[in-house]
Amino acid sequence: MCALISAVNLIGVKIAARTGARLPMAVGQLLMGTGALLLLLTGSHTSLWVPVLLLVPVGLGGGLAVPSLTAALLENIDGARAGTAAALLNTFRQVGSCLAVAAFGALITDRTAFLGGLHLNLVISGVMLLVTAAAT
Fold first, then answer.
1. Between helices 56-75 and 82-107, what is the axis angle to 10°?
2. Residue 100: is it exposed, middle or buried by C-beta count within 10 angstroms (0-12/13-18/19+)?
3. Which of 17, 27, 136, 12 is nearest to 63 (CA)?
4. Rounded to two decimals, what is the model's pTM?
5. Would the CA dihedral through 34, 56, 29, 23 be positive or negative?
6. Are residues 25 and 69 in contact, defined by beta-carbon separation less than 8 angstroms?
7. Distances in whole angstroms, Cα of residue 58 to Cα of each of 16, 70, 91
8. Closest C-alpha among 103, 114, 116, 132 to residue 32
9. Euclidean distance between CA atoms 40 and 97, whole angstroms
10. CA-CA distance, 129 to 110, in Å (whole number)?
11. Residue (of 54, 57, 50) closest to 130 by Cα position
12. Is residue 16 within 8 Å of 24, Cβ to Cβ?
């Protein structure tokens, strides 16, 4: 997933330059949300390769959405404020990530209910990403 994000980042910037930032942002969020919901198909006896393959759309979507979000921000702000705007965007992304890790981690702390908590995390993530894709 991380390797895909890195590789698709480069492609995502080129797509955003041609189509504008909205299309790759929406498609990226749609791919990530779909990937999260597809991961619901996994269970305790699922082969390791199934989640690995199901993380492909998540990686592709992340690589498309994030650089396009940054591009959209920087295209719509005065150049003198670009550094501050980019710093705020990255700060909010990092804080959001930390809060998500804490909240989703709390849902999987009980070993007897780990899979149920994991599936709840995937539903929350998938639905939120599909909603934001539609909003984009």
1. 150
2. middle
3. 12
4. 0.87
5. negative
6. yes
7. 18, 18, 22
8. 132
9. 21
10. 26
11. 57
12. yes
Q: How many CB atoms lie within 10 A of CB 58?
A: 24
Q: What is the pLDDT along the chain (136 residues), one digit of tens a residue?
A: 788 888 898 888 888 889 988 999 999 999 999 999 999 998 888 899 999 999 999 999 999 998 888 888 888 888 889 899 989 999 998 999 999 999 999 989 887 888 889 999 999 999 999 999 999 9
DSSP class of residue 59 equals H
* Cβ–Cβ under 8 Å, residues 54 and 35: yes
